[in-house]
What we know:
By secondary structure, this protein is an alpha/beta fold. The chain has helices at residues 44-51, 73-79, 95-105, 112-121, 137-149, 167-182, 194-200, 218-225, 272-281, 296-304, and strands at 3-13, 19-29, 33-37, 59-64, 67-68, 80-83, 155-159, 186-191, 203-208, 211-217, 227-234, 251-252, 258-264, 286-293. It has two domains: 3-223, Rossmann fold (3-Layer(aba) Sandwich), CATH 3.40.50; 227-304, Alpha-Beta Plaits.
Amino acid sequence: MSDIITIADLEKTYHSGHQALKTINLGIKNGEILALLGPNGAGKTTLISIICGLVNPSGGSVTVDGYDIIKDYRITRQLIGLVPQELTLGAFETVWDTVNLSRGLFGKKTDAAYLDQLLRDLSLHDKKYSEIRTLSGGMKRRVLIAKALSHEPKILFLDEPTAGVDVELRKDMWQIVNKLRASGVTIILTTHYIEEAEEIADRVGVIRAGELLLIEDKQRLMQKLGKKQMTIELRTAITQIPAALAEYDLELADSGEQLTYTYDTRSGQTGITRLLQDISQVGLTLKDLNTTQSSLEDIFVNLVHTE
Length: 307
């Protein structure tokens, strides 16, 4: 799969001296969903703003479908749709007028059939003649997406698309994103909701303090950096972990009937077999065993808090 966006040695330092981006190198594949994770101030929005032509870089280059974002600004901007964090909409305009005007601003001919279907796909069709001020926050977020898609872009940027949106509407948004990807749109989203990336992303990038810490296939990332926990249920409660099991760094639940063992999935020797043997030797009887894999959230927290 070829890259539709190529970022090479990209840097951004503001007049204040703050370096928002530090030598970012990244290729975004055509048709993928890429999730960019990072704490506030990590540089996610700055990166998106540069690619979309809203902020000038201090160094490096970005090409979109082979076109340079500075030399070929008009072409690259037409290839991109952007859904910003802020609800920037005219209060007294109708939904239809908003998306129709946005399409015209990109030089696209009027296409009522396309816009009509777009509003249907976003569950906005029954609100097409409603003024923006009468809509809920979730509906306004959908209008922003419709506005960004009005000119039929090949790439869609979603900057915190579900911020302030309830859980039910958030899941609807995931379905919308998957439908767009199925139609061939490349999607890049920034999010604070880790489950969002875990649910829909093909690849995950983690940014901290302007640096891209990693970019990895989601499943491979969880396999490489994740840890597993084995929960051991005992038939009889204990008040403390036997000294003979100290090397395993077990955790004892308050009930005294459950031991938790954490191990690295990358290790050739997990120690499980020897642990179970030692548990038997100290006279403990097992009732049940189960294992759980670290979530993407666990991995993210570990990465951004590692100095």
